[in-house]
């Protein structure tokens, strides 16, 4: 089983290295946007607390997590299924679980690497380096990655041309970033907005950088559990045959 997983991950690594354009979206674009938006802070010599610094990073970390999960895990799985490769992989490996876990684990590691690198670049640009912020980045990505995959995994149950996947992922990303800008005062709406992975990320960040507050921890924990259960259910129910074969 381990050898099969290694073989699958090697294949996914080779496919990732062949598609170098994806690194422009996940690393170069966020860095360029950060420099454009925060140039005053970059050329200033301000001091930042851990909370201020990680709060500044939240939208960018959320962007990297969403891009990797949508395009490189869910999008690739969807495209492979609709092109017939997923059925072939399943026949060879004899395990749908390994086929799902291979890109999921690989891009968790890639996401960690990219977000930590981004955090270091931002800190150096702001004339500081803080190990606690790097640790917070690691913890936040580790906590939010699986629930993000879980809730977005619903896409795998939809039927549309796999060539439209980039449009679906783009719209999902825009909606998530737009929802993050909302700060409702009503507690029920605050909880509902935690469906947005970036809102949930911000909530987790606040929990990790402030005093323990059950009114924040409980809703976040409930959403994380629900998202993971959704992901598990979809993974079990997801057909390996393309929509054209199932029709």
UniProtKB/TrEMBL annotation:
Chain segments annotated as transmembrane: 21-37, 57-79, 100-128, 134-152, 164-182, 216-234
Record's keyword terms, sorted: Membrane, Transmembrane, Transmembrane helix
Protein name: Uncharacterized protein
Organism: Philodulcilactobacillus myokoensis
């Amino acid at each position: 089983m381990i050898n099969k997983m290694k073989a699958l991950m090697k294949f996914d690594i080779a496919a990732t290295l062949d598609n170098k354009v994806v690194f422009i979206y996940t690393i170069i674009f966020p860095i360029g946007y950060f420099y454009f938006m925060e140039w005053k802070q970059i050329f200033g010599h301000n001091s930042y607390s851990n909370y201020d610094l990680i709060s500044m990073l939240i939208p960018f970390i959320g962007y990297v997590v969403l891009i990797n999960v949508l395009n490189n895990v869910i999008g690739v799985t969807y495209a492979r299924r609709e092109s017939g490769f997923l059925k072939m992989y399943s026949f060879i490996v004899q395990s749908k679980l390994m086929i799902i876990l291979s890109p999921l684990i690989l891009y968790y590691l890639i996401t960690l690497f990219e977000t930590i690198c981004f955090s270091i670049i931002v800190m150096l640009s702001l004339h500081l380096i803080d190990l606690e912020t790097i640790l917070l980045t690691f913890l936040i990505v580790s906590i939010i990655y699986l629930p993000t995959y879980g809730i977005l995994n619903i896409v795998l149950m939809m039927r549309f041309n796999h060539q439209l996947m980039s449009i679906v992922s783009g719209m999902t990303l825009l909606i998530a970033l737009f929802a993050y800008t909302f700060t409702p005062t009503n507690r029920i709406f605050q909880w509902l907005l935690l469906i947005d992975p970036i809102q949930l990320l911000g909530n987790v960040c606040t929990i990790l950088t402030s005093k323990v507050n059950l009114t924040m921890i409980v809703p976040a924990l409930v959403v994380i559990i629900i998202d993971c259960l959704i992901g598990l259910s979809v993974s079990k129910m997801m057909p390996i045959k393309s929509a054209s074969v199932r029709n």
